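Standup notes, protein team

Yesterday: finished cleaning the Ammoniphilus resinae set.
Today: DUF3231 family protein structure.
Blockers: none.

Input for DUF3231 family protein:
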Amino acid sequence: MKPINISSNKTNTVENLTSAEMGKLWATYMGNSMAIRILNYYLQHVEDEDIKTLLENALELSQEFMKTIEEIFTKESFPIPHGFSDEDVNLSAPRLFQDEFYVHYLKYTAKAGLSIYSVGLPLLFRKDVKDFFRYCIDSTLDLMEQIKEILMGKGLIIKPPLIPIPDKVEYVQHDFLNGFFGHVRPMHALEITHLYDNIENNVTSKALIMAFAQVAQDKKVRELFERGRDMTTTNVENYMQKLYDENLPAPTFLDDLVTSSTISPFSDKIMLYHKMDMFSMKIRAFGNSVAVNGRRDIGILYTQSLTKIAAYVEDIQKTIIKRGWLEQPPYAADRGKLASDQ
C-alpha cells in the first residue's frame, strides 16, 4: 500500500481522550478485570497441559491489557475503575467445569474481545490508544488460532457445515424472501454461518449460566440465571432445528462439561456482570445475523430472540444497580444540572 505523508497533531498523545477512546478503554479494562478472576480460578483445576498453556496465555494478555490501560488512565488523571478483585473469586472452590469447557469459553470470550476492539478501532485517533487496540486485535487473533488448533486437534468441535460449490453465477428470484409460504429456498452460506455462530456462542453461554444457577448464593440472582438458562435452551433448539431442516449438522450442547459442585467459585456480582456482558454480545451477534439474512422465518426467529434477550439484560442491569454493583462508564457533562447549580 502506498504511504500517505500527512501528519496531524490531532493524533498525538498530548491530545485529550475522546468519548470513543474513553469508552472503549473503560469497557476493555472492565472486561479484562473480570477475565483475570475467572481465568485464575480455571487454572486451579486444569489438568490438560495444552489447555493450561492456553489459559496462561489468555491470563497474561488480560494482565497486559489492564496494565497498558492503567498507564494511559494515570497519565490522563482518569480514575482507575474498581472492576473486580480477589474478593470476587474463591480459588479454593471445587472444580465446576471440565477442561474442555475452558477452550470453548475462551473462544467465546475471544470473539467478544475482537468485537469490542474491531468496532472501536475506526473511531480511535490518538496514537497510543490506536496502537494499543491494534495490538489487542493482533494478540487476540493469535490466541484464537491457538484455541482453534486445540479444538480441532483434540476433536472438541465440528467445523461449520459443508455446502456445494455453485456451478455458475445466478441471481435471486421472487421467492428469495419466503420463509413460511410457497417455495422456501435452502439457506444460503451467510445464513448458515450465522446460525452456526449463534449456536456455538449459545451452547457455551448456556453451560456457563447453568453452572452459575447451580452455585449462586442469592435466591433472586439464582432465579435470574435459571430464567436465562431456559431462554437460551429454547433459542439454541430453535436455531439447531433450522440447520436440521436443511440436513446440516449443528454444534452440540456442552452441559455435560459442568460438574455437580454447588460451591460457588465466584461472587454473585461477577457472575451477574459476566452474564449481562455475554447476553449483550448476543444482541450484537443478532444484528450481524439479521444484516445478512434473507428468509423471513429466520429473521422473525432472530427478532423474537432479540426482544426477549434485551428485556432479560435490562432485568440483570436493574438487579446489579439495585445492589450497588454497576460502575458508571464515562459520561457527557450534564449541562442542565450545571446551569441549575449556578
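Follow-up from PR in the comments: The chain has a mean pLDDT of 93.
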